[in-house]
Design goal:
Protein name: Protein translation factor SUI1 homolog
Strand content: 25-35%
Pfam families: SUI1 (PF01253)
GO molecular function, one term: mRNA binding
Strand order of the largest sheet: 3-4-2-1-5
Helix content: 10-25%
CATH class: Alpha Beta
Shape: globular
Number of strands: 5
Largest sheet: 5 strands, mixed
CATH superfamily: SUI1-like domain
CATH topology: Translation Initiation Factor Eif1
Organism: Thermoplasma volcanium (strain ATCC 51530 / DSM 4299 / JCM 9571 / NBRC 15438 / GSS1)
Structural class: alpha+beta
Number of domains: 1
GO biological process, one term: regulation of translation
CATH architecture: 2-Layer Sandwich
Length: about 100
């Protein structure tokens, strides 16, 4: 993906970095799939503002699990990782809700 830094300013000095994250309502749901396997589904991250592929990659590394991005806006992780994902996204500045 193309770098969004078009100003030439160092990334840490850009005032808009992370802007709007608290306004995004991210929802985490766990779904039970075939053979009793669980899948953690994260939706509500705006792909126009955030690099969803990068977030998915970081999440997969954080929870040591496989996963994918569906339809360019939904992150699916293998296994039940609700609490780890919630903490990770809240630390990034997102407003997160977990559904049981």
């Amino acid at each position: 993906m193309k770098d969004k830094n078009f100003t030439g300013m160092p990334k840490e000095l850009q005032p808009w970095e992370g802007f709007g994250r608290e306004a995004q309502a991210v929802k985490i749901v766990v779904d039970k799939r075939r053979y009793g396997k669980f899948v953690t589904i994260i939706e509500g991250i705006d792909p126009k503002i955030e690099d969803i592929e990068k977030i998915a990659k970081e999440l997969k590394k954080k929870v040591a699990s496989g996963g994918t991005v569906k339809e360019g806006r939904i992150i699916e992780l293998q296994g039940d990782h609700r609490q780890e994902v919630k903490k990770f996204l809240e630390d990034m500045g997102f407003k997160v809700s977990v559904e049981q």
